[in-house]
Amino acid sequence: MVSSGELQICLRWVYEQGVGLLVKTSNEERLKENLDIFNWALSDEESEKINQIAQSRGFDGDTFISANGPFKSVEEFWDGEV
Q: Which domain holds residue 38?
């Protein structure tokens, strides 16, 4: 489970990349925490450490299928909608 502090760091990093992000919560306290990302910035060292983490920006359908999982083929996984 991710702590609220870790989540804020992730949200702040995404924001600093210039990416638009949407977060959803019905918890008022979490909403306040999410908005708090605008009151501070990551240090250069923190940003560099995060940038060194291997990233994947997309997944093909094979990532989500498994003989033991709920989706046994890409056709079962993909409903045709975007």
A: 1-55
| Six token digits for residue 49 | 């450490």
> Is residue 48 a part of any domain in this protein?
yes
Give, rounded to a whole angstrom, the gap between the first and last alpha carbons of the chain.
29
User: What digits encode the pLDDT tens for the residues 1-50?
Assistant: 677 788 899 899 999 999 888 888 899 998 888 889 999 999 999 999 99
CA distance 71 to 77: 5
Q: Kindly state the DSSP code that residue 48 receives in the 8-state scheme.
A: H
Q: Which of 27, 23, 5 is nearest to 15 (CA)?
A: 23
- Whether residue 79 lies inside any domain: the answer is no
44: which 2 tokens?
């250069």
